[in-house]
Amino acid sequence: MLFLIESALIALAIIGAFGFPRLGASAFAKLERPFASLARRRVKAVLAVGFLALTLRIALLPVEPVPEPVSHDEWAHLLAADTFAHWRLTNRTHPLWVHFESFSIMQQPTYQTYMQPGQAIVLAFGKIILGRPYWGVWLGCGLMCAAITWMLQAWLPARWALLGGLLALLRYGVFGYWANSYWGGAVGAIGGALVLGALPRIKRSQRTRDATVMAVGLGILANTRPYEGFVFSLPIAAVLLWWLFSKRAPGFRVSFRHILVPICISLAVIGTGMCYYFWRLTGSPLTMPYHLSQEGYVAPYMIWQSPRPAPAYHHYVFWKMCVEQAPQVFAMARTPAGFIWKALWWWPFFLGPVFTFAIIAALWLRVGTTRQEHTVFFGAIKRLCDWSCAGNIFLAALLSSEHGDSLVLSAPGNAAVATVASARALLRPLSQPRCITDLPDHVHASCLGCTTSHFSRRWSSAELESGNAEGFWA
Q1: What is the pLDDT of residue 312?
Q2: pLDDT beneath 70: ranges in the chain
Q3: Can you tell me the distance from the alpha carbon of 432 to that of 203, in angstroms, rounded to the nearest whole number?
Q4: Which end of the chain is more exposed for a tag (fewer CB within 10 A), N or C?
């Protein structure tokens, strides 16, 4: 139903954008002035976005109260948070542990969640400092929005970065399930934002603090989503290493002292702490708890691996989940239909109707259109973004009072504005030099689940073609 409502509103927004392209232009122009002033003050912009995320979530407590855990993953995170809040890393196995088995929790060799400790540490902080684990979620979402804004400031013009942070705030920091459950997500996004934000800063300034920030971001990813974080970090590492050995890099002494040494030392400290944590939980510094939990599943990690033999289970519900249901999903994931199903499953969350429309429009603009056609058509898409953002705020506020978790609230305005950011690269003629920020404008924002754009009606193709971005040339 939400998808149909979103699609209908997008259709109305498209009609309004192309039929009445200047509707509300003066109002949007007035709104831009204070945003532009704040965006130029970069530190204040980062703090303002984080503070606004915290304030809005507090204001919504009457209609979006503190959530109750409903899934076994949430309860597992809360178990680890309670353990950390009592200044323990794990718990002793109960003598009758067989009768207390549950999903997402391991009973042998110790009693603890199998998941990485990043989310639980944040929940434990909220419980210790503010009395409830949820306030850790609250603080984490505020830091996530601030970190995304900080990251975008390294890649995009200041106004784009501020609006990208505000849109991430609306979609993920207030109405998304990251802010209304104990599942996590915000902590991993903080790690990704730190890594991405540090990369261009390292290439520009070669400061030790930026290298340390990147290492901290990598550590956060390793302690929240290790496998996804590893894949996410590979292209970042490749770009950094390629730059270090290129002619544009500083001398070896500068790179070694200000980049490589801080990263290696920070990662060594983080890795040592992780190995100690694994040793306390599993008895081996190189064995992750998640690996032990997956040994109970017949279906393996990756689609190219072979199914495992079924172990002995103490309860029928475990057998049904691990032997009957999980292998069926695994078998389907290895087929073309499985890939299509996953794409259709995630499309409403990451793209949605507006983002799909805008991508098609941007690709159409990229091929065989004149500069005047670019300007006219892009102005219509720009107006679509303006009104979709305004309508998305209203729709999200309306539905969040009726649906407590706001889990599937795909933001049409956010999706449209994300495509306008990617259209910046698509609209530039082939003869123009290409800025390294062209691709990350779209790809990196999509990976983090944030969207960026320029909110002014005066944003024209001339500004796009000028390459006026506060990034750097590669």
Answers
A1: 83
A2: 1-6, 9-10, 348-474
A3: 23
A4: N
Backbone angles phi, psi at 470, to 5 degrees: -90, 45
Residue 392 confidence (pLDDT):
44
**105-106 and 112-113 strand pairing:** antiparallel
Question: Per residue in 287-333, pLDDT tens?
Answer: 999 888 777 777 777 777 778 888 888 888 888 888 888 888 888 87
Q: Which amino acid is at 83?
A: T
Could you read off the pLDDT of 289-302 as tens digits, one per residue? 988 877 777 777 77
pLDDT in the model for residue 104: 86
In Å, how far are 8, 28, 174 from 170, measured between CA atoms? 21, 18, 5
Encoded tokens for 40:
């130029």
Confirm if 377 and 21 have CB atoms less than 8 A apart. Answer: no
The distance from CA 209 to its chain's CA centroid, rounded to whole angstroms, is 23
Q: 4-8 long-range CB contacts below 8 Å, 24 or more apart?
A: 5/395, 6/352, 6/353, 6/395, 6/410, 6/412, 7/353
Residue 302 exposed, middle or buried by CB count within 10 Å (0-12, 13-18, 19+):
exposed
Per the structure block, which two tokens stand in for 42? 């970069």
- CA 290 to CA 365: how far, in whole Å? 47
Instruction: Give the contacts of 54 (CB within 8 A, at least 6 positions apart).
Output: 138, 139, 141, 142
Q: Which of 181, 153, 225 is nearest to 447 (CA)?
A: 225
In one-letter notation, the amino acid at residue 142 is G
Give Cα separations from 70 to 20, 85, 302, 383, 410 (angstroms).
46, 21, 28, 40, 22
DSSP-assigned beta bridge partners for residue 111:
91
The whole-number pLDDT of residue 280 equals: 95
Residue 4: what pLDDT? Answer: 66
* pLDDT at residue 350, rounded to an integer: 61
**Distance, CA of 115 to CA of 107 (rounded, Å):** 13
Report the Cα 44 to chain-centroid distance in Å. Answer: 22
CA 319 to chain centre: 34
What residue spans define the domains of the chain? 295-334
This prediction has a pTM of 0.74
| Angle subtended at Cα 17 by Cα 15 and Cα 19, rounded to the nearest 5 degrees | 60
Nearby residues of 320 by Cβ (< 8 Å), 6 or more positions away: none
**Three-class SS state of 105:** strand
- Kindly report the three-state secondary structure assignment for every residue of 125-193: HHHHHHCCCHHHHHHHHHHHHHHHHHHHHHHCCHHHHHHHHHHHHHHHHHCCHHHCCCCCCHHHHHHHH
Whether the CB-CB separation of 13 and 387 falls below 8 Å is answered with: yes
